[in-house]
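Replying to the earlier thread about multi-chain prediction with a worked example.

Input:
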Amino acid sequence: MTQYFHSVTLDYEKCKGCTNCIKRCPMEAIRVHDGKAKIMEERCIDCGECIRYCPNHAKVAVTDKLDKLEGYKYRIALPAPSFFGQFKDQEHIEDILNAFISMGFDDVFEVALAAEVTAYIVHRHIREKKKERPQFSSACPAVLRLMQIKFPDLLNRVTPVLTPMEIAARLAREEAIKKTGLSKEEIGTFFISPCPAKVTEMRCPITAKKSAVSGVIGANIIYKDIIRHIAKNQGTGRSGGKQRATKLGLAWGYTTGESRSVNFNTTLAVSGIHNVISLLEEIERGELKDVDFIELQACTGGCVGGPLNIQNLFIGRMRLRELIKKYGEKDPYFDEENLARLYEERLFEISEPIQSRKIMLLDEDLSQAIIKMERLDKITSELPGLDCGACGSPSCRALAEDIIRGMAFETDCVINLRERVKILAEQILDLARIVPPSMAGMPNRKKEEGDKDKGM
Amino acid sequence: MPVDPLQYTPKITLEFKIGEKDFYMAGESASRTKRTLQQLGLNQEVIKRVAIIIYEAAMNVTIHATKGVLKILIDPNEIDVITEDEGPGIPDIDLAMQEGYSTAPYEVREMGFGAGMGLPNIKQNSDELHIETKVGVGTTVKAKVYLKEGGFTSA
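Result:
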């Protein structure tokens, strides 16, 4: 198996070995062993639930640092739409974009602008290709990874269009090549990300053979610098023209923005990884065939709810909407003709089908797998069914699976162990009461002696 | 007595109790079985067929019967989906097998169920289908899906 990179990791020092994360993980990908959480690499989809729920902040997302900029002659920042929601309302979008330039980027390209291109291509694709409904968004990499493992039969309904991040990187690079005459390799494209899943998507892409993004920098890493430069630039006058995205693209920062801009009669927008799972379960049973397009996002509230963002998701959404109201009403940068050309060139389509990943498989051989499943059922039935998590596995069923896979022992269940200790203690007590034959009768004799004593 | 490994056919049984108007159970049993079949490594096509059978069969019990039980038996050769219910029974099986024929009450149709596709869907997705029914007593539906002819892929 090829090395599988993912972004979410454990801060070993901070982990107290509690069981909050194992209960919350939608993939049952975390175990607590020897007092520390362990992420099962191949199961993690980088949804970030554990980052949000860890009370000790022991889950962190590995993103690129700013020093990665040094490897490129011309550096372009690609801020996610949700990034603009991280500031108080007095900030002008143009001021935020200019702050990227003054802190050292050579250019800035809004991912929101690329989202408008994505929406157009997705719309044409669904309208013209007449595929099975509903069609799913391809924009959230955590959702795609979820589907690879849990909903493989729905993968063929993901619209084969690259993510706005990827399209932004390609468009920005093209522009930069024309402007500077530099080669592809000399131009660095840096996505400013609300989430760890985008880091994974850049390093191990599932929608493209090779990502056009050079680095993914967490919104939390760059935030302070941007704030500082916004303040510094104040009063120096505003150089315009960098903000090209309209409200349609900017609204991709929160749930419903994407489905609105893709624009069909019947669309649905679902956010939060657990909500996404229950909706996909409905669809795999054949429901919702009347819906054209479904927007799916792992984070509650959409990208403004990303674990690397600074603001609370509702505040972030409010701020973003305020900015959209103020600056979003403008003519689109790409006209119909441009968009149609981009669609027909088919450069932004996912070329290879997204592959499923059978990592939950019990055994390659069906008979063996059924035998293991029999054992699994038996072990599960013997466990208390409390799903307490004290063994370090998220549920009794998961512990039984871990036992089958050789990762845990039946004695790991503290409830059952306590019961066994109790029985053992009773047996020891019983044993202690049994007297060797040579001493048999002695207690009686003693009793008589006692009586005699009393009599005296 | 020790089990002869050559004679022994491993088998697992999943069982779900279905109550009257328990619309949630059909979906849940289909989803849970689907996870189990995925863990066993069955191919998508078989999983999809079995899930449809379970959903439709369980929905029939929910809609028409007072109570019932759904059993899924899995061995290396085949999967059986069996529902046994206490209910009105089916007076005319041929009629019930017709697409679009439905005796579901109005409120059930309002919920989007009872379109008369249940039994036809089950028949279409199974390799064998046996229905035993007694009017006023209940119905047993046994649907079989073969695994040996390409049903299993270890990839």
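The first strand of chain A starts at residue 8 and ends at 10.

Feel free to reuse this layout for your own posts.
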